[in-house]
Amino acid sequence: MLFFSFFKTLVDHEVTIELKNDLCITGTLKSVDQFLNIKLDEIRVKDEARYPHLAAVKNVFIRGSVVRYVHLPANAVDTALLEDATRREAGNAAGGKGR
Amino acid sequence: MSFFGFDPSANPSQRGHPSKAPGFGETPDHFAGLQARHDEDDDGIDFEDTYDGLGDTLDETDDVFNDDTFGATTTDRDFDFAGATAKVADVIEEEHAVYTRSNTRKQSAKQTPAPASAVPETSQLPALVPDMSLWGAPPPAPVPAPQHQHHDFMTQPAAMPSTGKRFMSLEEVEAQILAMNQKPSAPPPQQAPRQFQHHVPTSQPMGNQFHQQLPPPHTPSPGVPMNQFGHPTMDLRGFPPQQQLPPHLQHMMQQNQMPQHPQHPQQLHQDRGVAQQPAVQQRVNPREQEPVVPPQGRNQYGMTTHIPMPAQQLQSMSEADRARFLEEESKRLKRNHKIAQLARYNGLMTPQDKNFIQRIQLQQLVSINSAEDNVNEDFYYIVHSAIRARSNPQQPLSQLAQTYLFRHGGRGNRRQDNHLQRMEQQVARAVAAAKARPKASQLVLEGSLGKISFSNVKTPRPMLNIKKSEGGADQTKKVEHMSVGSQRALISQEAQKPSLADRKSLLRAIENVYDALLELEIHERDRSKLPTLPPGQPPQEAHAQWSMKRDQLAYKLYSETKIHLPIDFSSHYTHPFVAILSFSKMKRAIPRVFRHLDPEQRLTVLTMIVVHLDILDVVKHGIYRPDEMQLPSAHREEIDTFANHVLPPLLGYMYEASFPVVHGLLKLMLDRVDVQPVSMTKIGLSFLTMFLSRAELLKQSGQVSEHEAMEWQNVYDRLFATLNGHWNDCFPPNGKFVDDQYVWQFLASMAVGANMQQQQTLVAAVKDRVLENVQASKILPPEIGVQKRENVNLFMRAMGLDVDLLG
Q1: pLDDT, tens digit, for every residue of B1-49?
Q2: Where is the Sm domain (chain A) (predicted)?
Q3: Is the confidence metric ipTM above 0.90 for this complex?
Q4: Gyration radius of chain A over CA positions
Q5: A39 touches A67 (CB < 8 A)
Q6: N or C: where does chain A have the smaller number of CB atoms within 10 Å of the terminal CB?
């Protein structure tokens, strides 16, 4: 759930999503779900000449499983908090059975 | 032939939802082929109309035998009884049949139980009628496409009464033929929609009401002619009851606060047919279950219909009544229109789709509702939002939580509120039930080679299943366990224990600090959940418990830092606290830890660091080697981290410290630490500067007694003597071009407390440096140059001099 939790904080930020088919889409993150499916608004495709069919597309829904990378806006990420969240996540996973 | 705008040329079978359209559980239409042929004849498309005359040019010599070959008339009209009888009349027959059937149905409602003999025949009927879906009760399947039906009600004219004899024969013969073919087509299971109703918490009560209200009480409508044909009365069984209504309709009705009394749509039909006969609108709230009012007034779509009244009744109405009636009538029409709009997208999703989505939503709710889970699972989001909320107080709640749980909005009437409350309760109950259900995440089938893992909202689908080794956890448990044990035993053990010295266990210790820290911070955040206390009131139970827990956690944090462990100078192991402080991770934690410590503990931390200053990694690695012009980057980073994270809280503490503390610390440092190498480092000098400037500040503010001042002077002299002759070593190599501000700060704080002789010594020692810097400040770019100058001036001014005097 850490990634889900993390991506939720990026809603309304601009992200760039790199898909497994090398398509690279930049847009405003509108929503994300627990499968890390992603909804983008006002999208731009990086290599527009190669994908002319996407020139007119304004928003997309991306299935989480086809995402290779998400480029994050650095200033929207709280690294220290992310470390703590990771600790908690690890703690939950380890203590999950015992607790 | 056109009644009420009805287009008789249109094929009736093409109206309504195509029974073969995908997505609906349609009955197999065994007469599809039959019907198609039927259509050919019914249609206005005629060969003669479309013929272009090309055939005239053909050789017609052998046409004599055409009849033998192709037949004189269109082929195969065996079943086309109506068409064969009268091409024109068939549309009338069609309508007539429909109309009659509606009457029979009405009658049957009154005349239950129906004769058993009628059952097989009538139950076949619906499939035969081309437009049966029109009646909102298609034989076996859920209502396919309500919007079509709705429009059909509006456009379908009232049937024309006719002699019906011919019709009778058509009906019966066709029914017989059908009876032979359609036997196997039993109504498909009605389970799916009902299950769904039960599963969905929000719609459940509606479903129940439906069940309760079956069969619907019908009042006979006076405007409807009786069954003229003596047609066998139909059993209602031929028409699936309202409980089959797809849930979306129920939702719709919920939303509109409509009483949902199942009523056969013909009534609407009739209303139209009888040309807006007046009626008393019956508004019934089904939830209240008023027994007096017959629950009639809405059809299955929640559209209101009214009970037709004889025309004389309208006339007998007063003006006011009539006006009121008309007003209600217009309201009703408006509402019907609205519902029709809403119903446009009905049936887009199958019950399975909705079921699936509802399950996801429910799972989501389960995790939203449990606060503990929430903090665990959604830590980053919650804390991040909290941090952002500080700058932006209008942080919206999670959308879903808003929709489902916090809709206490003032809109809507009391009934609606009540309804919402009920809904919320139901959601809460469903959530509780879902939580109570044991969550098995895996299923291992006997004899299978793998595991089947279920996905849920938190773990969509585990792709990797890494087995955790229990070793690491055990080790930490052991350590924890020991710390619970007697302190005495611990002292010797910890001191001699090499395990703490190895890197892995040190990192583990740091993680323990972080865990304790996080726990404490979460607990601190819970403070806002406590009821606010009016000033002057004794703390309540909750507050007392909260602070007790806080103290516990704070102590746990403190002990995790290992700072309380006594210092053993004879041991060659580094003190655990100093050891873990050598990691930048721990350095970064210090300001956060410091916040939760009481003054005494803070002093302990400071003392611990001061006492071990010479073995602190940042000091050890902060000394320049003879041939080095620059420290290795890793060490520089560590030093920066220390300066940025550890020093500020210590400085903060120092600037409030009393004179004896400052004095004691400096004395301790001189006693325990080899000051000379410490003075060669940035961090060491920072500490010295810290003590000296604080002491000077206290001395100047006059808070220091004579005796204390004397003692301080002793310590100062000791320090001066120790460092005398090494002043130049304080500077980093190549000091001209690197930041040496801290050295000048230190020298300035030394100079302030120095006597005349000491000052002279100091100036003589660093004279070269001063000149070097002043010169460098002239060569260097202006901003750096000014800075250099200022640094030197800091020192000069402390002795009452100025760089400008040097020229």
Answers
A1: 545 555 555 555 555 555 454 544 445 555 544 444 544 455 556 666 6
A2: 2-76
A3: no
A4: 16
A5: no
A6: C
Omega prior to B215 cis, within 30 of 0: yes
Cis? peptide before B539, omega within 30° of 0? no
> Do B559 and B483 form a contact (C-beta atoms < 8 A)?
yes
Task: State the Cα–Cα distance between residues A87 and B171, nearest whole angstrom.
Answer: 77
Q: How confident is the model at residue B118 (pLDDT cuts 50, 70, 90)?
A: very low
Q: What is the DSSP string of B705-737?
A: -HHHHHHHHHHHHHHHHHHTT-GGGGSPTTTTT
Structural domains in chain A, sorted by start? 1-96 (2.30.30.100)
DSSP secondary structure letters along B739-768: --HHHHHHHHHHHHH--HHHHHHHHHHHHH
Alpha-carbon torsion angle B675, B680, B684, B689, nearest 10? 90
Mean pLDDT along residues A33-62: 91
Instruction: Identify which has the larger pLDDT, B455 or B124.
Output: B455
The predicted-structure confidence for A77-91, as pLDDT tens digits, reads as follows 988 889 888 888 887
**Chain A nearest-CA residue for B457:** A34
**β-bridge pairing B442-443 and A24-32:** unpaired
**What residue of A is the nearest CA neighbor of B521?**
A84
Which tokens go with B784?
């750096």
The residue to which tokens 């704070």 are assigned: B554
Bridge partners of A27, per DSSP, are A15
Residue of A nearest to B473 (CA): A94
Cross-strand partners of B298 = B304
pLDDT at A63 over 90: yes
Maximum Cα–Cα distance across chain B = 146
- DSSP code, position B304: B
Those residues whose C-beta lies under 8 Å from the C-beta of residue B772, and which sit 6 or more positions away, are: B735, B736
Residue B36, classed as helix, strand or coil, is helix
Q: Which two tokens stand for residue B619?
A: 């000091």
| Residues B89-103, mean pLDDT to the nearest whole number | 72
Using CA atoms, how far residue B407 sits from B385, B396, B411, B415, in Å, is 21, 13, 10, 14
Kindly state the tokens that stand for B63: 């046409």
Query: A16 - beta bridge partners?
Result: A26, A71
Average pLDDT, chain B: 67
By DSSP bridging, strand A38-45 and strand A67-71 are unpaired
CA distance, residue B378 to nearest chain A CA (Å): 5
DSSP conformational letter for A48: T
**Residues with Cβ within 8 Å of residue B530, at least 6 apart in sequence:** B542, B543, B546
The model's pTM is 0.51
CA dihedral A79, A83, A85, A90 (to 10 degrees): 150
Q: Which residue, among B364, B219, B392, has the nearest Cα to B294 in the 3D structure?
A: B219
User: A–B: how many Cβ contacts below 8 A?
Assistant: 54
For chain A, which residues lie within 8 Å of any Cβ of chain B, measuring from their own Cβ?
1-2, 4-6, 8-9, 34-35, 78, 80-82, 84-85, 87-89, 91-94
B586 against B77, higher pLDDT: B586
Q: What is the DSSP letter of B556?
A: H
Nearest in space to B42 (alpha carbons), one of B74, B2, B4: B74
Structure tokens given for B4: 């009420």
Residue keyed to tokens 């602190």: B616
Q: How many CA atoms lie within 13 A of B592 on its CB side?
A: 21
* B473 contacts on A by Cβ (under 8 Å): 94
Q: How confident is the model at residue B346 (pLDDT cuts 50, 70, 90)?
A: confident
Distance CA B768, CA B246 (A): 94
